[in-house]
Amino acid sequence: MSTTVPSQEMFTKIEDFKETQKIWADLAHRGLEVFAKIGESERIILLPQIHPGGQVFCTLKIVPSEGTHSQGKIFLESLTGQDLLGQFSFVGDKYFFRTTWVHEDPYVIFPTEIILYKLQRRQNFRLKVPKAFHSEFVLESVNGKKTQYKVKIWDLSSRGCCLLVEPTSLFKADDGISGTMTLSKRSPVFVQGIVKHIRTEKVEDKVLRLAGVEFIPLGPALESQLFTVMMELSRLYLRIS
What we know:
Blueprint: E1 11-14, H1 17-30, E2 34-38, E3 44-51, E4 55-62, H2 69-77, E5 84-90, E6 93-99, E7 102-104, E8 107-111, E9 116-119, E10 126-128, E11 135-142, E12 145-157, E13 160-165, E14 176-183, E15 189-203, E16 206-215, H3 220-237
Antiparallel strand pairs: 1-9, 2-3, 2-5, 3-4, 4-8, 5-6, 6-9, 7-8, 10-12, 11-12, 11-14, 12-13, 13-16, 14-15, 15-16
């Protein structure tokens, strides 16, 4: 599958390692969390510390599936050799990064001299779903009435999505909808939302009809599932040739 380097419209690429070192030092000083995935793992939460020699030492705050320290050690050892993809929020901005790492119990260690990608300063940034990336939204109800309607997902954010719909779609602006969202080989995620708008957009000489959906606030379990999907998409944008 082909991938692209993040565009300037979505990310600012930070390659000044003096700046990245300062960001990591401030992050550690404030005790802020890093949300991460290693390979196809569940989400983990890391607490960074800065050590001499330009390295970030992270303790594993949350082990997948509420595991023990011993289970966390086994979990990390099973993922050795796979890249770590992480994100964190700092001073109102959201950053993504991709890095190699090593495990020296109890730490996950990676260098401070890695490229950071600062997302555009929007409350609700969106990631375009690549054509080759399987995506599907199965509409199950509209305003409480059951239905069955499959559409493609055009883009996705942490708070909503944009659906590629036909002119004869079964919903309109301000309708309440629910359904399951599937991306790649991930388990379907059940979501509820409000249709905020329906608009047209010209893409490659085709006029597309897009419906913007804002999710109704999700519970912790669903937030974790959605986070996994977002990280998978971000992995594609952050893969560098």
